[in-house]
Design a protein that fits this description.
Shape: globular
Distance between the termini: 38 Å
Structural class: alpha/beta
Largest sheet: 6 strands, mixed
Helix content: 25-40%
Strand content: 15-25%
Radius of gyration: 20 Å
Order of helices and strands: HEHEEHHHHHEEHHEEHEEHH
Number of helices: 12
Length: about 290
């Protein structure tokens, strides 16, 4: 079960047909929660991150187990937790949990496909958050089940629609702003601009990374105007913690180098607020190494 819809490039995964989206089928989702004796909370650090599901989860009498790798988990929301920021992904933690329970023989190709996809996407195809040998040892064991890593990568990264690719081009050529004095790049899209490119869930995934790839840029921010808020996606290099910025100023959080948050001001006011906040961090940005 998930709070909201998710990108089409993940809907080929085994078991997709069994996923219940709370926002689309609230009655069925609530029935499942109310009938549950045990609830696993995966890849989020607090119940308030589940949006509309939060209240239903809080009143549930089921035991709740958190498996997550984000900073500062709200452990009081859960009965048990497995949470560590050093691990590459929640999928890797799930594998470790399965192994610890002695159930490793149950990991078939379908399970391995899902876990490999989670590790691959959370590490940007093994380009970050994967400095520990155990990550590759686990990945190797998943591949030994007979999965096809090349095909998995292609299904996730090589299935762009024409609109999604044109949106990417528009972002880079028309919408990217460089704040040289702050070593920052940001891209901001209005709802009108998103509609112009027939935006679908997942179409803006990864765009912020292009801004971060610029030489001497330490911080990148991607802002999108939603129905009732502005969503901000932060990425940084080296020792620059965007989790702190997202948590303290935009009702969000995440990892040291990847975080998200929300603003309930207009898009133009949010951009102004962001620039003012970054000015406060200027000395820190200059000091933080890439």
């Amino acid at each position: 079960m998930v709070p909201n819809d998710y990108p089409a490039f993940l809907k080929w995964l085994p078991g997709n047909e069994n996923v219940v989206i709370y926002k689309k089928n609230e009655k069925k989702a609530c029935d499942i929660i109310r009938q549950s004796d045990l609830i696993f909370s995966l890849d989020y650090s607090a119940l308030n991150r589940t949006d509309l599901m939060e209240n239903e989860l809080r009143i549930s009498k089921a035991k709740k187990i958190l498996i997550d790798h984000h900073l500062e988990p709200m452990i009081s929301d859960f009965d048990y937790y497995l949470s560590t920021i050093e691990i590459s992904s929640t999928s890797e933690l799930v594998f470790r949990f399965i192994d610890h329970c002695g159930w490793i023989d149950l990991v078939d190709q379908e399970i391995a496909t899902a876990l490999f996809t989670g590790i691959m996407t959370d590490t940007g195809s093994f380009s970050y958050s994967c400095n520990y040998p155990e990550t590759f040892t686990i990945t190797a064991s998943l591949i030994r089940t007979g999965i096809n890593p090349e095909q998995i990568h292609r299904l996730v990264y090589d299935t762009y629609s024409e609109d999604r690719l044109r949106l990417l081009g528009y972002c880079l050529s028309e919408k990217m702003t460089i704040l040289t004095g702050l070593s920052t790049a940001y891209i901001a899209l209005s709802k009108e601009e998103l509609d112009r490119f027939h935006h679908q869930v997942g179409d803006t995934e990864g765009i912020v990374i292009y801004a971060l790839s610029i030489e001497n840029i330490k911080l990148a921010v991607f802002l999108t105007e939603r129905k009732d808020r502005i969503r901000l996606s932060f990425r940084s290099k080296g020792n620059l913690s965007v989790n702190q910025i997202a948590r303290e100023h935009f009702n969000g959080g995440g990892h040291k180098n990847a975080a998200g948050g929300d603003s309930f001001d207009s898009l133009s006011d949010t951009i102004l607020k962001l620039r003012q906040i970054l000015e406060q961090y200027k000395e820190d940005i200059d000091r933080w190494s890439v």
